[in-house]
Design goal:
By secondary structure, the chain is an alpha+beta fold. It contains six helices and six strands. α4 packs antiparallel against α6.
């Protein structure tokens, strides 16, 4: 009888161990499942944050180009004045224009002296493409300044994408106004173009 009693007493502990093992296994499954779900969510958030950071970097880069550090001393390089025949067909018109370039990097000033013949050539060609009417308007002067920035950067060896020509659509009523495709402006080494003299005759 005592042997049977001990056998009965010995039986319950394995059931308790099985329950404990099952509970531990269930807890591990829940923890691993939760951990896996958390990892997936963290990866999705990281990817979304990375995309927004890239978009933010582009925006901040554009803002950085527009914003100027007030403590930074600007570097201005005045060029010899240009006297150029303009592209007017009806009359002989010419422009006398003095240009000062504002540089992004102060070290670029020494490099500009080496490339000055190419820089002057590109600027002369950019001015000669314009007519007197184009240059008399403020918008024409601003467009010329952008062209000078691009052509100077190109002369210095920087990669400047070609400007996309405006495409004219035709309709039943006739040609529509030209539509310009807006592309992201490249970052150029020339921060600004300043006219110190602008005479058209």
């Amino acid at each position: 009888m005592s042997a049977a009693a001990t056998a009965v007493d010995a039986a319950p502990p394995p059931k308790g161990k099985k329950k404990l093992i099952i509970i531990i296994a269930a807890v591990l499954v829940v923890l691993l499942g939760g951990g896996g779900a958390a990892m997936v969510m963290m990866k999705k958030k990281a990817a979304a944050a990375e995309e927004s950071a890239e978009a933010g970097d582009e925006k901040s880069a554009k803002k950085a180009v527009n914003k100027r550090d007030p403590k930074a001393v600007p570097v201005f390089v005045p060029l010899d004045p240009f006297t150029v025949n303009l592209a007017d067909r009806n009359a002989d018109r010419y422009a006398q224009i003095a240009v000062t370039l504002e540089l992004e990097d102060p070290q670029l000033e020494a490099q500009m002296k080496v490339y000055m013949p190419a820089i002057r050539n590109n600027i002369l060609l950019a001015i000669a493409d314009r007519s007197a009417n184009e240059l008399l308007a403020r918008d024409g002067k601003e467009q010329l300044a952008k062209k000078i920035m691009r052509e100077t950067s190109r002369a210095l060896g920087f990669e400047v994408p070609e400007e996309e020509p405006a495409a004219a659509d035709e309709d039943e009523d006739g040609p529509k106004k030209k539509k310009k495709k807006k592309a992201a402006e490249p970052t150029l080494p020339i921060r600004g173009v300043h006219f110190s003299n602008f005479i058209i005759q």
